[in-house]
């Protein structure tokens, strides 16, 4: 007999307890305290899977909770100094602030640990009556007879690697709602299903991504400047590969350092993790970490495509919000405020629809409000920056970006829109066209390897469960294939998930799914799109602390 799912019903269901989802939940309760609101979060706790730099624009927090600084002064550190560095292998120089477009300044912004911000917002939401369920992974979108989204099914628990039910097997429950808001972050698995189901990407450019790799260090007091924000461009990347670094000085003599590599790079031996390790050795950088101790590590993909890459954000029964849609302001490297504002606007539209007796239709009012908001204005102003880098290269694209940002600040917006129609996975070229990148051996003091780093991410998965990194066509992986080609995922994965080992004298493709940081890079960058990331059991993955 087929087991029936338990069913729970709410007015609004939110998938993901990140900034967009939590802002939506809080705003729903602010607008109508009688609404029933539920958040499902796949991480073991709120904030466990949240990773960002992060310097945030406080505009959304100021609107959502105007007295947040008085109520939670520990959450944020005001930016006190702002530096932009350009590096080559031996030297570096600062670009004077007066030469940088005003949009790139961080005046009035705050350095935060985004996971801690989300944990605090979750408490605020629960105090308003929102139900939050960490450790429950939404695994399947559910549709009604008309094809509208009616909710999701939570992933089953207690299935072994062979797909058989274990003694503790439990069928995941179904959760229904009048509207379901998807806030999974960049490259959400359910968002991808919805894009196909409703053809949400029709007429849109492909989404484009970067991989951010981040560490947190406890540094010596003499090397610490509270509130200092540094960004860097140039070395160690070559002139055909775009990306950049950040260094943020947090309270308690902590420093966050990270590197973002844009995933349209071409050399299959490039490793974003190892580019961060090299960056720390630069003469202008390494002094910050002299005598310091590394205390945190993680990685996450970010959606960078901008306005041209936004999917249609609404469909019958729900909406895509925040980084699930791709609302990052690429040149500012800031998306948290836009994610939160999108959540607030969607909440207002959903609350009004429910009050009017509507359900499971398209929230077109949300799109109208978003297009009239500061979110849309920001994205429209910077829409050409990302494609300019792709078309004109690093030097030409950077010069174009500077000119266009200055013009937009003067109210002179360019009338054209550049397109970037080649997806990131199609940019990889054969290994034979490149000299393999030889990264220095880590010293265990300033530079490290991937596996040693994983311990700082507190990664944990139930070992005996189906592998959540699927090969759509396993026959593409053959001994001949492996012996003649360096697999790019063995390099770009920041967790050592993919490796080629030797068994009985033959190469074997091994997926160490237990290492996975849920960064989604393999799902994005795999050249044949053969790797498909799906949700593991709820609660699995990293447990980021102070990230």
**Global geometry:** globular
The main pleated sheet reads as: 8 strands, mixed
Beta-strand residue fraction: 15-25%
Average the pLDDT over all residues and give the rounded result. Answer: 95
Report low-confidence residues grouped into runs of 5 or more: none
Instruction: Report the C-alpha radius of gyration, rounded.
Output: 23 Å
Name the structural class. alpha+beta
Query: What is the strand tally?
Result: 24
Helix percentage range: 25-40%
Number of helices: 14
Cα end-to-end separation: 46 Å
Task: Describe the 3D structure.
This protein is an alpha+beta fold and 547 residues long. It contains 14 helices and 24 strands. Strands 1, 2, 8, 9, 10, 13, 19 and 20 form an 8-stranded mixed β-sheet that branches. A hairpin with a 2-residue loop joins strand 22 (498-503) and strand 23 (506-511). Helix 1 (19-31) packs parallel to helix 4 (114-127) and helix 7 (336-355) crosses helix 8. The longest helix has 25 residues, at 385-409. The relative contact order is 0.16. The mean pLDDT is 95.
């Amino acid at each position: 007999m087929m087991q029936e799912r338990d069913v729970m019903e709410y007015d609004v269901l939110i998938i993901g307890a990140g900034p967009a989802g939590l802002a939506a939940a809080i705003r729903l309760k602010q607008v109508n305290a009688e609404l029933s609101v539920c958040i499902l979060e796949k991480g073991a706790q709120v904030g466990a899977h949240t990773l960002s730099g992060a310097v945030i624009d406080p505009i959304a927090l100021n609107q959502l909770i105007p007295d947040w600084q008085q109520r939670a002064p520990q959450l944020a550190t005001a930016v006190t100094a702002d530096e932009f560095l350009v590096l080559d292998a031996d030297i570096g120089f600062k670009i004077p602030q007066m030469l940088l477009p005003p949009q790139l300044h961080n005046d009035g912004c705050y350095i935060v640990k985004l996971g801690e911000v989300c944990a605090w917002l979750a408490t605020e939401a629960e105090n308003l009556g929102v139900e939050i369920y960490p450790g429950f992974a939404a695994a399947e979108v559910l549709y009604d007879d008309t094809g509208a989204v009616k909710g999701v099914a939570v992933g089953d628990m207690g299935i072994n690697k062979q797909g058989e039910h274990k003694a503790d097997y439990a069928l995941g429950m179904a959760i229904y709602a009048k509207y379901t808001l998807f806030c999974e972050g960049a490259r959400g698995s359910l968002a991808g299903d919805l894009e196909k189901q409703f053809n949400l990407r029709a007429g849109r450019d492909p989404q484009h991504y970067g991989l951010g790799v981040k560490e947190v260090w406890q540094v010596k007091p003499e090397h610490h400047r509270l509130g200092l924000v540094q960004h860097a461009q140039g070395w160690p990347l070559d002139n055909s590969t775009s990306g950049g670094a950040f260094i943020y000085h947090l309270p308690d003599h902590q420093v966050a350092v990270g590197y973002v590599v844009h995933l349209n790079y071409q050399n299959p031996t490039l490793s974003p993790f190892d580019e961060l390790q090299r960056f720390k050795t630069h003469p202008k950088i390494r002094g910050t970490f002299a005598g310091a101790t590394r205390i945190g590590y993680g990685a996450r993909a970010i959606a960078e495509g901008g306005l041209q890459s936004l999917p249609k954000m609404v469909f019958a029964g729900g909406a895509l919000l925040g980084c699930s849609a791709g609302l990052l302001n690429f040149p500012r490297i800031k998306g948290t405020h836009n994610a939160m504002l999108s959540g607030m606007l969607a909440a207002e539209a959903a609350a009004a629809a429910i009050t009017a007796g509507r359900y499971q239709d398209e929230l077109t009012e949300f799109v109208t409000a978003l297009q009239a908001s500061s979110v849309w204005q920001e994205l429209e102003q910077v829409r050409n920056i990302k494609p300019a880098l792709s078309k004109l290269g690093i030097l030409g694209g950077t010069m174009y970006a500077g000119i266009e940002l200055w013009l937009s600040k003067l109210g002179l917006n360019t009338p054209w829109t550049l397109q970037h129609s080649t997806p990131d996975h199609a940019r990889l070229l054969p290994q034979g066209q490149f000299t393999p990148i030889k990264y220095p051996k880590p010293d265990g003091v300033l530079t490290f390897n991937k596996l040693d780093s994983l311990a700082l991410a507190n990664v944990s998965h139930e070992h005996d469960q189906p592998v959540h990194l699927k090969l759509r066509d396993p026959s593409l992986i053959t001994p001949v294939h492996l012996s003649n080609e360096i697999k790019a995922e063995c390099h770009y994965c920041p967790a050592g998930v993919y490796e080629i080992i030797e068994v009985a004298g033959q190469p074997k493709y091994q997926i160490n799914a237990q290492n996975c940081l849920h960064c989604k890079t393999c799902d994005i960058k795999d050249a044949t799109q053969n790797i498909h990331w799906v949700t593991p059991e709820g609660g699995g993955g990293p447990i980021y602390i102070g990230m």
